[in-house]
Amino acid sequence: SAVKWVILAEVLVGAVMYMMTKNVKFLAGFAIISVFIAVGMAVVGL
């Protein structure tokens, strides 16, 4: 499903950002953003 790919992309981008910066805030930020996106898509019905 589309949601699975979006979450996968978020995780990959978050992981890359973390590896580049070693900044835990990126990981937490992307986790929060991906949850919001997943909830939003569920509400919209995708």
TrEMBL record:
InterPro entries: TraA
Transmembrane regions listed in the UniProt entry: 26-45
Family assignment from sequence similarity: Belongs to the TraA family.
Subcellular location as annotated: Cell inner membrane; Secreted
Protein name: Pilin
One Pfam family this sequence matches: TraA
Organism field: Salmonella enteritidis
Keyword Cell membrane: yes
